[in-house]
Design goal:
The chain is mainly alpha-helical. The protein contains 6 helices and 2 strands. The protein has helices at 3-30, 37-46, 53-60, 64-76, 98-122, 124-137; strands spanning 80-84, 92-96. It has a two-stranded antiparallel ribbon. A hairpin with a 7-residue loop joins strand 1 (80-84) and strand 2. Helix 1 (3-30) crosses helix 5 and helix 3 packs across helix 4. The protein is globular, with a radius of gyration of 17 Å.
Length: 147
């Protein structure tokens, strides 16, 4: 593959990821949740069993202080709560509340709507093939913003 082709592919993937992120966030907001794309990136790490602030910072690629501020914001909005860590008495586990889970379900619905637009454009088989190929390329993520 030529350098220019690789650059075009990179740009297309980044544009698709950016568009998808915005469409999901817009769909979450349309469903009555106060949200920012960062919340969704955090929720992918907090679901299903929660995480420490340090775990969340590593996942998001931010400082522990930035992750702490995000958690404070999410607590104030009722999306997460802190609980005692089951294995480390010094740590607190950040877990999704019912409101956080409802927001996650709203994001799933918004993602399905966004992907339906892709299905209409290129067909269901092509979208499934794209999903499978991308999963081979980046099977473990992380699902986080590209700073």
């Amino acid at each position: 593959m030529q350098n220019s082709e690789a650059l075009a592919l990179s740009a297309a993937l980044l544009a698709a990821a950016g568009e998808l992120t915005h469409r999901i966030n817009d769909g979450v907001v349309a469903r009555g949740f106060e949200a920012r794309p960062m919340y969704g990136f955090a929720f992918t790490r907090l679901a299903p069993d929660g995480a420490t602030v340090t775990d969340l910072a590593v996942h998001l690629g931010v400082t522990k202080q930035a992750a702490s501020q995000l958690v404070e914001d999410l607590v104030r909005k009722g999306y997460v709560e802190r609980r005692p860590h089951p294995e480390d008495a010094r740590a607190r586990l950040v877990v999704l509340t019912e409101r956080g889970w409802a927001c996650t379900r709203a994001a799933e619905e918004a993602a399905a709507e966004a992907v339906r637009a892709w299905v209409e454009l290129i067909g269901e088989g092509e979208v499934r093939a794209l999903r499978d190929q991308l999963a081979r390329i980046a099977p473990y993520g992380p699902i986080r913003p590209a700073w």
